[in-house]
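Weekly modeling sync, notes
Attendees: S.R. (lead), two postdocs, one rotation student

Agenda item 3: backlog of single-chain predictions. S.R. asked that every request posted to the team notebook include the full sequence so nobody has to chase files. The rotation student volunteered to paste the first one in as an example of the format we agreed on. Action items at the bottom.

Example entry:
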Amino acid sequence: MPVLPTILLIIDTTSSIPLFPFEHKFCHNENCCNLRGGTKLKELVVISGKGGTGKTVITASFAALAKNKVMADCDVDAADLHLLFQPEVKETHQFRSGKTAKLDMRVCNKCGKCVVACRFEAISPGFRIDPISCEGCGVCSHICPQKAIKMEENLSGDWFISNTKYGPMVHAKLGIASENSGKLVTLVKNQAKLIAEEGGYDLVLIDGPPGIGCPVIASIAGASVVFVVTEPTMSGLHDLERVAKLTSHFGISPLVCINKYDLNTRMAETITQYCRQNGCNLIGKIRFDPIVVESLVNKKPVVEYSNNEVAVAIKKIWEECLRIIT
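Predicted structure, as returned to the notebook:
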């Protein structure tokens, strides 16, 4: 008989971060119903397969157009929605995640077992722990006969609850080189949902991260609608394909927008054909226009700054999103 692999599941039960701050019993999908008896709360996540497609620009315009919503900036590795919204921070909370070994030299007898055991060479022969090299695995703490090594939770960033002219917003700032951004994304998203539930809002509008990694997975899990912003380049098409495969895993057919489509109409047509053949709903195209940069410099969503062709196109795309969501 074939030998089946053993799967070891490690659950961190020591974290003080409330990833799911709900005190009620809900259905299997914690994202599908609200606290007041199962009324559907809509969740629109804007993502892109790659950075630089204009995802946040479009999200900001959606925020200006949407009614009765809570916003969440889940691009925690490089959050920038606050640059446009200039939020008034109401609450600031620490985000602690991951652990680093701390050695108490008053207890240590310098047996050297930890130095030998650390595969990351984070403990020097002089018994100093390099916090950058330490991966937080905890082996040194486990084998230390003197119990001189403790694993301490890292301060990895901060998250905020703010007010903006467009409504409440939850956002975060992950520390430099800090890990567990997917965990912070989940926290930000669920806090936004909690505010929406308690305040009677209908929609959570999420500015998701680029790529297809853990932060993106955390952003789109349980989403009502996923809106993908792509661009007419080979990398734009490639990353759209990867995002489409990811959303299909969650049973979601993404909505797609080609931003700056007129910079390469041939590639824009290739992306259009891909969407038709792969169940992606292409709901709009937006021309390149320097007015977008001008609006960013003036810290305004483009739909508020101008009423030109770009703004009109974004408004039409939002109306189509709204039709699909409702």
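Discussion: group reviewed the output briefly. Confidence is low (pLDDT under 50) at residues 1-38.
Action items: rotation student to repeat for the remaining queue; S.R. to check formatting next week.
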